[in-house]
Write a structure and sequence with these properties.
Helix content is 44%, strand content 23%. Strands 6-5-4-3-7 form a five-stranded antiparallel beta sheet. The longest helix has 22 residues. The protein is elongated.
Length: 316
């Protein structure tokens, strides 16, 4: 625990009761000498800490002194606790302990009437996160290197095999119960998304930055041109279930529209590079979508369906 955090914890503890130097040392897992130094530093910056001698003595705050509470209204507090509740559903992260302690700290300083208003709401409103069981031992390193723009030599375990990759992390994000790292891969020559729990080894690496920057710029401009010149317009009608599935997709979820009591539709321009994804998605949702445009997508879906029928038709 950093010194500033420890000093804040001391003040919070003394707001509730008198504490001895030893009891504070035990709670914060530091030496008694460290606590004595922290108390002296707090006194020097104006925190009114009083020493009480005799049995039951120790340190306490001057009567009436309290840290100012968080100035959050009901909606702000609800948003904050709702987000923290969502984070607690990620089974493994570098925030394993902090995600719980920060929530308890916020609850402890909220006014009673505010907490009373939002507690019932939190029982009926939540951020849905699938329950995943995995470990992400390199999450902190990936976040750090993404912020620093550094290169990594990694051992990555995909579904079928493991291989070494030189990557430059661009961003780390959480979605669908997993942590993901979007990174430029020198082996693939493009930006790809990797599951953080599948990194087996991670270490710093050196790459010729000038060449890489040129390659990244070239990749970015060429992708932009591909989207403009080779995109394919897709239009489909959806059932209720199809709409729910489409809304979960990060690329087109915001484009789903309800056109009637039991009718939904989605229309978007699909980049040529993502064509296989579009075929996979509409094949996956099957009868919960009716593709109206383009004809090419209809034909590819029909071919896949016929292949599935033949596979399970049996041998006559």
């Amino acid at each position: 625990m950093k010194r500033m955090d420890r000093m804040m914890a001391i003040v919070l503890a003394l707001q509730h009761q008198t504490e001895t130097a030893q009891s504070l040392a035990d709670k914060l897992e530091v030496s008694k000498r460290t606590i004595l130094r922290d108390v002296q530093a707090l006194s020097e910056i104006g925190v009114p800490i009083c020493a009480v001698s005799g049995p039951g003595g120790g340190y306490r705050l001057m009567e009436g002194y309290r840290l100012p509470p968080l100035q959050l209204d009901t909606e702000e507090a609800l948003v904050l606790l709702l987000a923290l509740n969502g984070m607690t559903k990620y089974s493994d992260s570098s925030f394993q302990q902090a995600r719980w302690t920060v929530r308890d700290k916020i609850r402890s300083v909220l006014p009673e009437h505010t907490l009373g208003q939002i507690t019932p709401l939190l029982g009926h409103v939540e951020m849905e996160v699938p329950d995943r069981r995995y470990k992400t031992p390199y999450l902190s390193e990936l976040m750090k290197y993404a912020a620093e723009g550094r290169w990594l030599l990694t051992l990555y375990r995909s579904q079928n095999h493991s291989r070494q990759l030189n990557i430059r992390p661009l961003r780390v994000y959480a979605a669908h119960g997993f942590w993901y790292c979007e990174a430029y891969s020198s082996q693939h020559g493009e930006v790809r998304t990797f599951r953080v729990d599948r990194f087996v080894e991670v270490e710093a690496s050196n790459m010729p930055e000038s060449e890489v920057e040129q390659e990244l710029d070239s990749l970015s401009s060429s992708k932009g041109a591909a989207v403009l010149e080779q995109s394919v317009h897709i239009y489909a009608k959806l059932t209720y279930r199809g709409a729910l599935l489409a809304e979960q997709d990060p690329h087109m979820g915001h484009l789903v529209k309800q056109t009637g009591d039991e009718e939904w539709e989605v229309a978007f321009d699909c980049p040529a590079s993502e064509w296989n994804w579009a075929v996979d998605f509409f094949y996956y949702i099957g009868l919960d979508a009716e593709v109206l445009e383009p004809i090419r997508l209809q034909e590819e879906l029909r071919v896949r369906a016929e292949q599935l029928v033949r596979k399970y038709s049996g041998n006559d």
